[in-house]
Amino acid sequence: IFDADNGSLLWSASNADADLNLPQMKYSIPGRVSVIDRDHDGLADHMYVADAGGQLFRMDIYNGKSGSDLIKGARLADFGGSSEQDNRHFYYGPDVSEIALADEHYYAVALGSGWRAAPLDTNVQDRFYMLKDKGVFLTNSDNEYTFPPTVTEADLYDATSSDLTSTDSSTRELAATAFAGKQGWFLNMTTSGEKILASPFIIDYKVLFTSYIPAASSQSACAPPS
């Protein structure tokens, strides 16, 4: 964070030698930082940022404090992996929306993976994710927002089959019960090489996003050439 008037550094986060040191923050961050003003007082309260290593971080701003007490943060999720298929990248920032459904209250953090530097790649299995961040509504003994253990795909509901929106009520209820015990959901990009190359948009409890399919996998006459 820089002073816009004179360019002086106000605060930084990195894996070392910063105001906030996070050991996992070792990949480039090409996408936007999604900033939330939760109480509409004109001051930023939370920041969400994703990186090229398939990770998602949240940073909480404690306005009025300074130094290392100004901003606290941690990794929320790790959706990357060591194999070529799991080598996911986040090139675009997430969208965030407050959700209150039944007895659940959380920030929905939506984002999709896609290797922008290699748009024709068909090896990486990209996905779209929605993470339930409940930590922004829970505080510890120091009155600071909490961070759960790092979320992985094993903690999410696989919504690729669309059972959550099935026309069959029994199927839909079973899926809803399974989803309630998870920390979010993910969708597999089912076409070879399909990837997310834009930020999503959440409105009225719906998530809107686009995907890109390389020409080698597309059945469309309008597909771009290699």
Q: What does it look like?
A:
By secondary structure, the protein is mainly beta. 5% of the residues lie in helices and 28% in strands. The chain has one helix at 169-180, and strands spanning 13-14, 20-21, 34-36, 46-50, 55-61, 71-78, 95-101, 104-112, 127-133, 157-158, 184-188, 201-203, 206-208. A hairpin with a 2-residue loop joins strand 7 and strand 8 (104-112).
What would you say about this model in short?
5% of the residues lie in helices and 28% in strands. It starts with 12 loop residues before the first strand and ends in an 18-residue tail after the last strand.
Through-space gap between termini: 39 Å
Structural class: mainly beta
Compute the number of strand runs: 13
Task: Return the average pLDDT rounded to an integer.
Answer: 93
